[in-house]
């Protein structure tokens, strides 16, 4: 179900299990349907796909009859899976995506991983992949069942690269080692002698403030003590309060409320005496040592200078010290560590070489069978004189082994096989890709295959052969094919017409499931253009009947 994608306001595709064909005029919207399928499978898309005037676009897809691997992938996404998979993706105008699998939210990357298990889309860009020799090895590996072996190989290869990087970190020339050790040793010595303690600077700062304000502190403490306790010349506030309480006691028998006042004033007097004692003790404990004050200043100055070199806080400086000590150990132990690493590298390299040899043998054994099968398929696809060869040569080790794999082809008798990129035409590439897909079809458990104009450059008898081969593939997979060829359209189990129309100043694309009569008209249009005659319709009917008879024989 497609909503508000480009010129499609709302459209539904109900596809059969077999061979589905989409046809229509150029620009009718066939590519938009493929874009919509790509979107619901989690592939990269853009908010530019949203229909003009709409604030969001939505694509939904329902899958049934899927493999256990797909079921496991759905569960890995955090969704339930009971016989059906419903995927929805909503794209909003601000670029946000909402993806759900059976109602459970998933990320776009999770959806992409699941989508690639459900559907393979093959288009002209796939044919272009044939022009890239680096992709050829994947075809051979798939047929050779090298997947698990390559997975283990890649794990070991990654570990080999990690060890080589580690070894490189340890390798320094002797002069550089000595220079680095001198620097580190000086830094460690300086920090170790400093004997830094966390929180020390705050404590020293408090002491410094005390020393700098010692005269002021002593003066005011003495003054406060005398005001409370008194001096030789004056009575203090505490004594005055006691005297006041005594006076009130003398008259309290005459003025009753003053008895409570006397008690409270006496309590205040006792309190003031206690505070005076605390002040006296503070004065006694003050030990303003000029030497200690100077040492405090010097220690703070040292910590400040160290902090500028090794970190703002005590924690930073101690961390620098630990790291420097570790690096010294690392340099001093580098020779031993390098030897250990080299030993591991040799062991892993030997293991990789053994595994690579097994992979190479399996590729070599498979390559001949693969080439023969592809040639057989190409002969059927009207390329009887083709020579297809898989060229395997040793190369430097990569994550894919130690083989360089390239497909070579000779399309004409007497010519030496050469790289595909140098001699294959567009039509030949399409047929080669279809042949390879058919050879690999037993190894591909993806339920749905989409061929997007893979028939480009093909016509005549070759087109008829391509149609037969696509129909043959549809016996093992659901096939959806976007085509401009009537020979292919005639072989479909389900034929959908994509049409574009204009209403009220807007463009709309619709999808129609064609009846037999509708298919006749569309086949005639594909063959002849806009002006369709009775004879052209009759020819289209004959083509459909002939295709039906061929399909019946193939089924038998």
Structure characterization notes:
By secondary structure, this protein is an alpha/beta fold. It is built from 20 helices and 15 strands. β14 and β15 form a beta hairpin. The longest helix is centred in the middle third of the chain and has 47 residues. The relative contact order is 0.13. The mean pLDDT is 85.
Structure classification? alpha/beta
Shape descriptor reads elongated
Helical proportion, percent range: 55-70%
Low-confidence stretches: none
Averaged pLDDT? 85
Strand order of the main beta sheet, please?
Answer: 2-1-4-5-6-7
Distance between the termini: 35 Å
Largest sheet: 6 strands, antiparallel
Overall number of strands: 15
Q: Provide the β-strand percentage band.
A: 15-25%
The number of distinct helices, counting runs of at least 4 residues, comes to: 20
How many whole angstroms does the radius of gyration measure? Answer: 44 Å
Produce the secondary structure layout.
Layout: E1 2-5, E2 8-11, E3 19-23, H1 30-40, E4 56-63, H2 68-76, E5 85-92, E6 97-101, E7 104-106, H3 108-118, E8 119-123, H4 124-129, H5 136-144, H6 147-170, H7 174-194, H8 200-212, H9 214-229, H10 237-251, H11 258-285, H12 290-310, H13 314-332, H14 334-380, E9 387-398, E10 401-410, E11 418-419, H15 420-423, H16 426-439, E12 448-452, H17 460-473, E13 478-482, H18 486-490, E14 494-503, E15 506-513, H19 516-528, H20 534-555
Parallel strand pairs: 3-13, 3-14, 8-12, 12-13
Antiparallel strand pairs: 1-2, 1-4, 4-5, 5-6, 6-7, 9-10, 10-11, 14-15
Helix pairs in contact: 2-3, 5-14, 6-14, 7-13, 8-12, 9-11, 10-11, 14-16, 16-17, 19-20
């Amino acid at each position: 179900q497609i909503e508000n994608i480009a010129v499609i306001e709302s459209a539904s595709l109900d596809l059969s299990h077999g061979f589905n064909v989409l046809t229509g005029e150029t620009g009718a919207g066939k590519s938009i349907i493929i874009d919509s399928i790509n979107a619901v499978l989690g592939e990269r898309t853009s908010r530019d796909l949203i229909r003009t005037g709409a604030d969001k676009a939505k694509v939904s897809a329902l899958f049934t009859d899927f493999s256990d691997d797909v079921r496991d992938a759905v569960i890995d996404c955090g969704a339930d899976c009971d016989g059906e998979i419903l995927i929805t993706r909503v794209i909003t105008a601000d670029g946000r995506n909402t993806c759900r699998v059976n109602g459970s939210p998933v990320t776009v990357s999770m959806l992409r991983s699941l989508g690639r298990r459900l559907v393979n889309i093959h288009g002209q860009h796939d044919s272009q992949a044939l022009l890239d020799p680096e992709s050829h090895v994947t075809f051979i590996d798939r047929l050779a069942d090298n997947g698990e072996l390559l997975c283990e190989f890649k794990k070991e290869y990654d570990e080999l690269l990690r060890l080589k990087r580690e070894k490189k970190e340890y390798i320094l020339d002797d002069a550089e080692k000595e220079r680095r050790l001198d620097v580190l040793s000086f830094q460690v010595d300086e920090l170790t002698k400093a004997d830094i303690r966390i929180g020390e600077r705050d404590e020293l700062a408090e002491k410094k403030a005390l020393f700098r304000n010692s005269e002021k502190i002593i003066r005011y403490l003495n003054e406060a003590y005398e005001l409370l306790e008194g001096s030789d010349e004056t009575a203090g506030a505490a004594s005055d309060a006691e005297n006041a309480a005594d006076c009130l006691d003398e008259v309290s028998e005459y003025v009753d409320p003053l008895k409570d006042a006397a008690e409270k004033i006496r309590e205040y007097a006792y309190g003031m005496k206690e505070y005076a004692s605390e002040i006296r003790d503070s004065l006694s404990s003050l030990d303003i040592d000029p030497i200690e004050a100077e040492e405090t200043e010097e220690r703070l100055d040292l910590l400040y200078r160290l902090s500028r070199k090794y970190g703002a806080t005590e924690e930073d400086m101690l961390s620098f010290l630990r790291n420097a000590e570790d690096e010294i150990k690392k340099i001093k132990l580098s020779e031993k560590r390098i030897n250990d690493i080299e030993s591991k590298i040799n062991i892993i390299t030997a293991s990789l070489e053994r595994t690579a040899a097994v992979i190479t043998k399996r590729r070599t054994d498979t390559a001949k069978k693969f080439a023969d099968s592809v040639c057989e398929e190409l002969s059927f696809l009207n390329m009887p004189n083709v020579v297809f060869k898989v060229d395997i040569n040793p190369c430097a080790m990569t994550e894919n082994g130690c083989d360089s794999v390239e497909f070579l082809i000779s399309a004409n008798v007497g010519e030496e096989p050469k790289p595909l990129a140098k001699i294959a035409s567009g039509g030949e590439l399409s047929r080669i890709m279809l042949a390879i897909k058919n050879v690999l079809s037993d190894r591909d458990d993806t339920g749905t295959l989409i061929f997007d104009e893979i028939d480009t450059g093909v016509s005549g008898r070759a087109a008829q052969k391509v149609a037969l081969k696509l129909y043959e593939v549809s016996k093992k997979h659901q096939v959806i094919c976007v085509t401009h060829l009537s020979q292919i359209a005639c072989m479909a189990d389900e034929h959908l017409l994509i049409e574009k129309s204009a209403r009220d100043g807007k463009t709309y694309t619709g999808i129609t499931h064609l009846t037999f009569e509708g298919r006749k008209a569309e086949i005639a249009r594909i063959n002849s253009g806009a002006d369709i005659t009775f004879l052209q319709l009759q020819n289209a009917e004959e083509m459909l009947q002939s295709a039906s008879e061929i399909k019946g024989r193939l089924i038998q």
